[in-house]
Request: fold
Amino acid sequence: MSIELIVLDVDGTMTNSHITYSETGDEIKSFNVKDGLAIASWKKLGKQVAIITGRSSNIVARRAKELHIEHFYQGVENKKEMLEKLLKMLDLSMENVAAIGDDLNDLSMLKAAKISFVPQDASAYVDKIATVVLSKRGGDGAVREMIEYLIKKEGLEAKYLALWA
Reply:
């Protein structure tokens, strides 16, 4: 069964886990543009992407909109439960899911997914249950590394490269 859906945590995977506040209280996050291109490519291959994050942020909503990620859930306490609801809606199973997370609130979701990824700087507790510990840190291309791992594993390299030929 192939991977049809990737599920992304945000803080610590799509970002470096730093949250910066300006003097006026604005929240600042940095996203890796290489991750964004890989996400866009995954979608161009006819695959799906979801963001399931524990925090709520206008910045993350903006990034999801930029990347045309239609399955976007913020302020989620139980990520596995949210994923199960999404899978019902999409008529998919956990066998079709790859997920990335970096901390304890991702644990149940990562355990449930067919393939789970953690960035190199993830919590040691989630490292232990992950299918793949990536060489990249969160916010430094970990999502890209995950997607390219899946592209190779799924035999989609020629199609992936053809998108940009």
